[in-house]
Specification:
The protein is an alpha/beta fold. It has two domains: about 5-10 and about 260-385, Aspartate Aminotransferase, domain 1, CATH 3.90.1150.10; about 15-255, Type I PLP-dependent aspartate aminotransferase-like (Major domain) (Aspartate Aminotransferase, domain 2), CATH 3.40.640. The chain has twelve helices and twelve strands. The protein has helices spanning about 15-25, 40-60, 70-90, 105-115, 135-140, 165-170, 190-195, 245-280, 310-320, 340, 345-350, 365-385; strands at about 5, 65-70, 95-100, 120-125, 145-150, 175-180, 200-205, 215-220, 285-290, 300-305, 320, 355. The strands form three sheets. A seven-stranded mixed β-sheet has the order 2-8-7-6-5-3-4, sandwiched between helices. Strands 9-10-12 form a three-stranded antiparallel β-sheet. A two-stranded parallel ribbon has the order 1-11. β6 (about 175-180), α7 (about 190-195) and β7 form a beta-alpha-beta unit. The longest helix has about 40 residues, at about 245-280. The protein is globular. About 50% of the residues are buried. The structure holds pyridoxal-5'-phosphate (PLP).
Amino acid sequence: MSDLNYFDYAATTPVDAGVLEVMLPYFGEMFGNPSSLHRQGQRAEAAVEQARETVAAGLHCDPGEVVFTSCGTESDNLAIRGAVVARRAATGANRIITSRAEHHAVSKTAEQLGKLYGFQVDWLETDEYGLITPQAVKQAITRDTALVSVMAANNEIGTLNPLSEIGAVCRAHALPFHSDAVQAAAYLPLDVNELGVDLLSLGAHKFYGPKGIGVLYVRKGTSLLPAQTGGGQEGGLRAGTQNVPYIVGFAEAFRLTCEERDRRAAHVRPLRDQIIGRVLEEIPDSRLTGHPELRLPNHASFAFKDMDGNLLLTLLDAAGFACSSGSACKTGNPEPSEVMAAIGLPPQWGLGSLRVTLGKDSTAAQVEAFLDVLPGLVQKARALNRR
Ligand code: PLP
């Protein structure tokens, strides 16, 4: 990669060379519209349907249950808005269960449905690690609940939720269960039946596929109002001419991920543990955010007391390291993120967050170099904070 040591794989990943290679013909000689009846169109349609089968194999579902969208955000929007509007029309149910620890693609969608469309949002409390328990879901369910949405893995703090148990609770109440698995897909096996989900969101750019392409798994029998109406593509759930090269790229990236998932996890886990161990040992007033064990294998996240997280990111960038923080805005007067608030971090900690996420090409030497500079930069950021 460039001169930058990249530790921000939760933000995005580079496109794998093999993925790009299979995409390229669909920008060139295979440019057809999958809805066209001629040969050129049929070739494009065959590529889309082959991609659908590949994705379905990775999710252990039927190809007809795979809907291609433009990104993880769109998948979340289609799942949530689509499910609750359809369910309210059918049963009158108007409550949505979710949490403030969700990605904005979920929480802002629920908020909008609450503010503008007459739904009631029941916000679940997380525990101190940002985890949602099946008991919390069970207690929140009422006869008016239309949907439960709980993410598989948290983007800011890496915590993994017990999806199978939550899925079982939803199933027992005959409720649709959506999970945002955008972060989880790179490292967790996603068997939709084992997880007990009815709707599952994915985005390719988190696992070495291109940006701007996502998938929503929709279990057969789950009613959804289409987000986009028009030509009837994607089973009528997402009208619009399919983005054939990106769909092909999604499928290849997902296929490779399913094949290499265990190897990739085994590569990053010890590097992650080294980062967590040394940061907590060497940096005073530091704490791990998220769960100590139930977390993504590539994900280390921290809070540093009395420090500006964005200032630390700037210092890290100048030193050649790309990381991320959890504060809500990049400039100006940042607020601690909803996730920091949800896990109950006091304000003097909430602004000092740091997220370090690894990828398949991360090396032990990069991690060493990072750990060598981090304590000094935290000290510097704190000193600048006091001025
Ligand atoms: N959900 C989670 C948990 C994410 O981490 C992200 C991206 O950071 C998204 C949704 C949005 O995905 P996309 O960037 O594909 O819209």
